[in-house]
Design goal:
Layout: H1 6-26, E1 29-31, H2 46-53, E2 57-58, E3 62-65, E4 74-77, H3 79-82, E5 92-94, E6 99-102, E7 107-112, H4 118-121, E8 124-130, H5 197-217
Parallel strand pairs: 1-3, 2-8
Antiparallel strand pairs: 3-6, 4-5, 4-7, 7-8
C-alpha cells in the first residue's frame, strides 16, 4: 500500500484555495442599497447615488435587487428614458425578487422602478461599469525602426599610381669568405647536468615512508 504523503495533501489544499480566490476576485456581487434594498428611498434618489459612488462595477459583476414582490420591479432603461422616468419599451424588466443581473457590457447602465411615481420619488439607479480587469493589455514594447539602406553609390578608394623604379648601379661584388681554417674554441667544457637518479630518489624516499606509515595505521 502506498504511503500517504502529507505534503501532497497540503499542495492540493493550496491549489483549491487559490482557484477559489481567483474565482471570487473575478466576480463581485453587489446588493443594491445594501440593507435598504430596492425600494422608495427615504432621502430620495441621493441614497442610491451615494451607494453607487462607493462601489466599483466591472464587467462580470452581479447586481442583486431585493424588493417586495407585487409592490416594486426593476427595469433597465436607456439614458434618454432614465431622466424623465419613462417606463415604455425598457431594455429589460424583472418583477420577481430577488433579481440578479449580470453586467455584460461596459459603460453606463440605468435602472428604475416602473410602478407609478416610484422613479420620480427616487427609486432609480445609474452605475458606470468598467471593462474586465482580466483583459490582456496591449504590448508597450517600443518598435525599433530598421536602419535605412545606404543611399548613393559608394566611392571606390583612390588608387595612387606607383612611380617607376629608377635603375641603380650594380652592387660591387662581395669578397669571398676567407679560406683560412677557423681555430677551435678554447676554454673548459660545461659539465653535464646531474643525472635524474638523485631527483627520483629524493621524491621516492618520503613517499615510501608515508606509505609505510599509512599501512601501520590501518593495522
Amino acid at each position: 500500500m502506498a504511503r500517504f504523503n502529507p505534503n501532497l495533501f497540503v499542495f492540493i489544499a493550496l491549489m483549491v484555495a487559490s482557484m477559489h480566490f481567483i474565482s471570487s476576485t473575478a466576480q463581485t456581487t453587489h446588493v443594491v442599497g445594501d440593507a435598504l434594498g430596492w425600494t422608495i428611498p427615504p432621502g430620495g434618489a441621493a441614497a442610491y447615488t451615494t451607494w453607487a459612488s462607493q462601489q466599483t462595477f466591472t464587467v462580470g459583476d452581479i447586481l442583486v435587487f431585493n424588493f417586495t414582490n407585487g409592490q416594486h420591479d426593476v427595469a433597465e432603461v436607456t439614458e434618454a428614458a432614465y431622466a424623465p422616468c419613462t417606463s415604455t419599451n425598457p431594455i429589460s424588466i424583472n418583477t420577481t425578487s430577488p433579481t440578479s443581473l449580470t453586467l455584460t457590457t461596459p459603460g453606463a447602465h440605468y435602472y428604475i422602478c416602473t410602478f407609478t411615481s416610484h422613479c420620480q420619488i427616487g427609486q432609480k439607479l445609474t452605475i458606470n461599469v468598467s471593462a474586465s480587469s482580466t483583459a490582456t493589455p496591449p504590448s508597450t514594447t517600443p518598435m525599433i525602426p530598421a536602419s535605412p539602406p545606404p543611399t548613393g553609390t559608394p566611392t571606390p578608394p583612390s588608387m595612387t599610381p606607383t612611380p617607376p623604379m629608377t635603375p641603380t648601379e650594380p652592387c660591387p661584388p662581395t669578397s669571398s669568405p676567407s679560406s683560412s681554417p677557423t681555430s677551435p674554441p678554447t676554454g673548459s667544457t660545461t659539465p653535464p647536468p646531474p643525472g635524474s637518479g638523485a631527483t627520483s630518489l629524493t621524491v621516492m624516499v618520503p613517499a615510501t615512508f608515508v606509505a609505510i606509515g599509512l599501512a601501520f595505521l590501518n593495522l
